[in-house]
Amino acid sequence: xxxxxxxxxxxxxxxxxxxxxxxxxxxxxxxxxxxxxxxxxxxxxxxxxxxxxxxxxxxxxxxxxxxxxxxxxxxxxxxxxxxxxxxxxxxxxxxxxxxxxxxxxxxxxxxxx
Amino acid sequence: xxxxxxxxxxxxxxxxxxxxxxxxxxxxxxxxxxxxxxxxxxxxxxxxxxxxxxxxxxxxxxxxxxxxxxxxxxxxxxxxxxxxxxxxxxxxxxxxxxxxxxxxxxxxxxxxxxx
Lengths: 113, 115
Description:
The structure holds two protein chains of two kinds. Chain A is built from no helices and eleven strands. Chain A has strands at residues 4-7, 10-14, 19-25, 32-38, 45-51, 56-59, 62-67, 72-77, 86-95, 99-103, 107-112. The model of chain A has no long low-confidence stretch (mean pLDDT 95). Chain B is built from no helices and eleven strands.
C-alpha cells in the first residue's frame, strides 16, 4: 500500500527565515497531495494542496512543489512568523475503491522570535 | 464553510464504561467520514471509514466491537468506545469529505481519559 515519509521530524527556524518540509510517497497512483497544519489540542487544518497535474502552487507565503517522477513533494514557508509554529502533516490520497488519505509522520516547526 | 463539529472536546470516564463521540458536518453533506486516533507527538492513525447508511470499514488491528461507528445521516457520525480501559486513553479526531479525493475537514478532536 501507499507509504508517505516526511522529513524532518523537527525544524527550528528564526523568525523571517524560510522553512522547508519534504515528503516522499511510494505509490505512483496517488494523485492528490494536501498539507495540514495542526495546532496544539486542535484538529488539523488544510493549508495548501496540489494535484498531480500541477508542479507548483503558491498561496501568499506558502508554496508546494511536486515532482511526480521522483515521487517527492515539498512545503515551503517563507518569511516565517511565530504563529507558523505548529505540527505540519503531508498526505497523499489514493483510490483504493474509495479514496484513502495516508499521512506523513509530521514535522514540528518552531519559529523563534 | 466546511465546518466539522466534534463533541465532546474532552471526556474523563471510569474503566468499563462506554463513551460516545459525535462528529457533525455543519454546512455540507459528508459522503464519507473518517475516525483517527492520535498518540502524543505522533501522526494520525486511521481507525475506520464510515459512509452514510452502510457499515464502517475498519483498519487492520482496530476492533470493530470495541469502537462502534454509526453514520446515521450525511451530517452525523458517532464513535462509541465500549468498555473503555486506560489504554484507550487518547486523542480521537474525526474528519469528513464532501467528495472523494478532496480536502478533509477535521473536527477539533476529543481527548479521552479513562481512569
